Amino acid sequence: MHRAYKFLLRPTVSQGAALTAILADHCSLYxxxxxxxxxxxxxxxxxxxxYGMQSAQLKDIRxxxxxxxxxxxxxxxxxxxxxxxKAMQAFFRRVKSGEIPGYPRFRGVNWxxxxxxxxxxxxxxxxxxxxxxxxxxxxxxxxxxxxxxxRPVRGRVKTVSxxxxxxxxxxxxxxxxxxxxxxPSTGAVTGIDMGVAHFLTTSEGVHLxxxxxxxxxADALADAQRALKTFPRRKHExxxxxxxxxxxxxxxxxxxxxxxxxxYAHKTALxxxxxxxxxxxxxxxxxxxxxxxxxxADPGQPGSFLPNGAAAxxxxxxxxxxxxxxxxxGILAHKAESAGxxxxxxxxxxxxxxxxxxxxxxxxxxxxxxxxxxxWCGHTxxxxxxxxxNIAIRAGLVLPDVA
Length: 403
Fold this sequence. Notes:
The protein is α+β, with helices and mostly antiparallel strands. It is built from eleven helices and 16 strands.
């Protein structure tokens, strides 16, 4: 089993400066490699630069610029080149599939916030001695940095990454061979329906509230963004101290919402795996659900468009993003694997339009966002409860006649 651990770093002033330098130099390497690929393509559309070719140049680059590139780990620089190669592969995949390509862009100083060390012991060393109360991680060119290790690391450390979030630094450990920690069996099963009015509803009819972290912090974020817009657009090196503080405030509010959303997802997922042996959920395609509607041309007036509900759909999309369904389902899958629980994804189509009593499917069955009333047999219930019940039925956890 694989697991990632994220710990806060406690660098000294000199170590903080070295960490900032390692990000800046890897960012420069990334941009230089991207420029080389672009120049080669402009010179000849048949010429392409691959990862192997750029990795072979690293030795000469390090010898030419020992002060900026030669002092860092060779493996971490290879990881940065592989990061660019993955971005280029994703670009060509989108071109072939007819999607919006989105050519990889040059990274600014604030857009490059992580450096990966592909192997523990090669340019980095996770030093967690059982008898030493202070944990450290050794990074080439930085030194032994203190780590605030709030929980034990299990398994074998495979990769080590250093990440910057605002003014704080973190180390992320990717571990494999992590032993599972099965929980005692409860004998309980359930189906869950993800929603906006309620975060989720179980097939037993239990509703969990939607905390709406983004909406609760929307006013503070809007004030911070308005304050930021009062400053003229400048390059990073030309920003004033007040401008940098305004940028930091906006970024800090976004990080706060992200942490609150992730924390709620962790606590909710832990509660679910403790209470149920088997959990059925919808196989959601969130990217398709939040897609903007296509414009509808007005045949009577060339150049005009008919109403397509884009404004209402934009509000729904914002609520879906705020709920964080994808974050929750990903965390639930990891916790279920560790606890020895079973997750069953089912087809989500018409789960809220199907009567659990008679099986009749109709869009008119769901009269409102909350109310379900079958037009065939007259069965009435909460719409979210009906959706969760149908999910459990499709997973074989509940029999339709029992419902």
